[in-house]
Design brief:
This protein is about 30% helix and about 20% strand. By secondary structure, it is an alpha+beta fold. The protein is elongated and about 80 Å long.
Length: about 280
């Protein structure tokens, strides 16, 4: 009898059998609207495919631990010509997901899964947990949803790509120059910054030196006051940008950022980083 044979299997054999019997998953969910929409596999379709196989091979799967971090984001939008701001909650979940041999509960395999949810306060945690649960199952059983599910099917971002989600400023950081909360930009995801150098892009003392090469020496206050002329945070001072997204200051200070039109950005970024605590 097959049922008797299954009861003698260890957890590795059971998971291997489930993996072998699962078919590639059809994406049944359309997320978003218009040209920004994309297809995804819903939690319902994942569970519908996996639950019968787990029942057949007597495997119990569940999350044994979840750790959550959250932050408040702001997103600006226009409604009937009026500029408005909505507050959203971003929740990140890291969970440990366990797969147990029902016939020998002391035998199990665990995996770590991650999930992020952005929504109004009460919905964000549920989204994050659903995402983590779904991918814990899909990755354990090696479920495929087609080429679009493979990160290698997409080109790497351009060097000037700027993340849309900003880090939360640290209240203990003396270079935290702005009380602004972290926010989500309304700019399209992956939009590359375009360089435009307004007249007020560099404060006094930050212009190019007489040799036409590197900018003149810059003080910390000048570096803080420098207005960003490109990218998602165009129009904000470097001090504000450091408070919103310190990783971007590191990008401007690094070797990957090269700009003949805005060399003061690299100088300002280096001055700010050089004056970080512990330097």
């Amino acid at each position: 009898m097959e049922a008797d044979r299954i009861k003698t299997m260890n957890i590795f054999e059971r998971i291997a059998c489930i993996t072998a019997e699962l078919e590639p998953l059809e994406k049944d969910l359309i997320v978003g609207n218009g040209d920004k929409s994309y297809k995804a596999a819903s939690e319902g379709s994942v569970l519908a495919a996996i639950k019968p196989k787990e029942e057949k091979y007597r495997v119990m799967s569940y999350a044994t631990a979840r750790q959550q971090t959250s932050m408040i984001l702001e997103k600006e939008y226009t409604w009937n010509g009026e500029r408005r701001t909505v507050k959203l909650t971003k929740v990140d979940v890291t969970e440990t997901y366990r797969f147990v041999n029902i016939d020998n509960p002391e035998e199990y395999i665990e995996t770590v899964a991650f999930g992020t949810g952005i929504d109004t306060y009460d919905k964000a945690p549920g989204k994050a947990m659903t995402y983590a649960d779904k991918y814990a199952l899909m990755k354990m059983y090696k479920m495929s949803t087609g080429a679009a599910n493979d990160p290698d099917s997409c080109a790497s971002p351009e060097p000037d790509f700027i993340p849309l989600l900003a880090d939360t400023p640290s209240p203990d950081n003396p270079l935290d120059f702005s009380a602004r909360p972290a926010h989500v930009s309304s700019a399209p995801a992956g939009a590359a910054p375009t360089e435009q150098a307004p007249a007020n892009a560099a404060p006094a003392g930050a212009e190019k030196g007489e040799n036409g090469g590197q900018p003149a020496e810059m003080t910390l206050e000048q570096a803080r006051a420098l207005i960003l002329p490109i990218g998602e945070y165009k129009g904000k001072s470097m001090g504000e940008v450091y408070a919103i997204n310190p990783g971007l200051i590191g990008f401007y200070a690094g070797e990957r950022f090269k700009s003949e039109r805005n060399p003061a950005l690299k100088t300002a970024a280096k001055v700010i980083l050089d004056n970080m605590p512990g330097k």
